[in-house]
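Re: the 259-residue chain
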Amino acid sequence: MNGTESKAGVISIRDLYKAFGSNKVLQGVNLDLFKGENLVVLGRSGTGKSVLIKVIAGLLKPDAGEVEVLGEVVSKLSHSELRDLRLKIGFSFQASALYDSMTVEENLQFPLVRNRKDLSRAQRNEAVDAVLDDVGLLDKKKQMPSELSGGQRKRIGIARTLILKPEIMLYDEPTAGLDPITCIEINNLINEVKEKFHTSSIVITHDLTCAKATGDRITMMMDGQFISTGTFEEVFSSEDERIRNFYNYNFIHQYERNE
């Protein structure tokens, strides 16, 4: 028992298939995300991890199967209903997706101006200051993205997602391209977001350190299917040679990168 059995589900995926031509990316995926947990989807690049969260957000349509998010079957939603659902889903892109021509403050104002027309300018300014303080970058408000480090851009990207107070966070390779110290800071931030904003999150990564630091549960994806789900220790105590090889490959290459 890992405690999730008694929790409410916020995402339910059943028999999900997605292919691009002859490339079968998702092959019968089943997945549950429970309220208040960080679920890590772990696997090598090209295994379908990012495709999975794009299907969850309604950015890609599945070939077969059903995706239910916050009680709504995504494939059955109208355009306006899907737009409303996406406001409850925070999508943290691998490249942070900041507008280079806007200051940090303007980047954070943008989703509020677009989606929260009920807010006054003063309320928007207050929201920007609050979320920047949450990610520890209030002093960077007037800077341009080009003036920030990779880790700072990642934090601002997460802040821009959080400013709409989503119920679900989807993190796509949150530590990719970052140095080891900054990776620790981002891992800590992911955990802080869960505690402070009461989010339920899916963390897509191939980084075992990130998985161990942030995941309440881990699920391993290979060849378009989940082959093991549980705590980090449960997954990597497996005798499955594919899982053991992934573990060894990840840490050996991480060591070589940091030499």
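The chain has a mean pLDDT of 89.
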